[in-house]
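Whiteboard transcription, Tuesday session. T.W. wrote the structure tokens on the left side:
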């Protein structure tokens, strides 16, 4: 695995080296002795432009090293050449990092590109729609936020933590719209999932303090 990651990381340099080896072999021995080096160089260049280095991001995302993850994303110079599902993931990750940096306009722009390209899995599409809904909440676009979050639930979310987050966001939307009965219903659904993410648990505790006192 690590060996393959090294190849992915240094694909352009390896392709250049093999190309030079091929040229030298071509000069001294003819085309056919040089063919394997040319062929491998072509495969490496194809992989560099068609698949990109996104495989290298997973480790950094899991460890929370967003700076290194962003560096890898920024190393993609021609994103439109990426294979369509990978291009979708590329723009979604760009949107996630922009959102973490509170660049809401940049986050919305990139996430929309990712969604328009189509996500590889329905659960991934649902998670992206949920993030778009949360983004619209940050921008106080309540109607659009509700639309995205409902779409996310229809598409399906990957786990109960995401589902609970979606129901809590809808609870907040209904509170804003003063539809208190619906707000309570969404709150009960979120709580019934028994999420364990500290941020979601804390949000449930905060809402629980006052939701029983509101009408509806």
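and on the right, the sequence the group agreed on:
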């Amino acid at each position: 695995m690590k060996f393959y990651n090294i190849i992915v990381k240094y694909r352009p340099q390896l392709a250049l080296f093999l190309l030079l080896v091929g040229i030298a072999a071509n000069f001294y021995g003819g085309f056919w002795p040089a063919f394997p080096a040319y062929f491998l160089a072509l495969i490496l260049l194809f992989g560099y432009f068609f698949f990109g280095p996104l495989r290298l991001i997973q480790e950094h995302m899991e460890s929370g090293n967003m700076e290194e993850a962003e560096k890898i994303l920024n190393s993609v110079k021609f994103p439109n050449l990426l294979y369509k599902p990978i291009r979708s993931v590329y723009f979604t990750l760009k949107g996630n990092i922009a959102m973490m940096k509170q660049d809401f306009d940049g986050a919305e722009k990139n996430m929309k590109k990712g969604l328009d390209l189509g996500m590889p899995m329905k659960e991934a599409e649902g998670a992206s729609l949920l993030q778009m809904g949360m983004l619209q909440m940050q921008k106080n676009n309540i109607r659009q936020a509700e639309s995205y979050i409902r779409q996310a639930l229809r598409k399906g979310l990957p786990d109960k933590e995401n589902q609970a987050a979606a129901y809590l966001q809808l609870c907040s939307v209904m509170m804003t719209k003063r539809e208190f009965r619906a707000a309570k219903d969404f709150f009960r659904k979120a709580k019934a999932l028994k999420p364990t993410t500290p941020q979601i648990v804390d949000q449930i505790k905060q809402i629980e303090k006052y939701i029983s006192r509101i009408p509806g």
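Someone added at the bottom: The CA atoms of residues 3 and 9 lie 10 Å apart.
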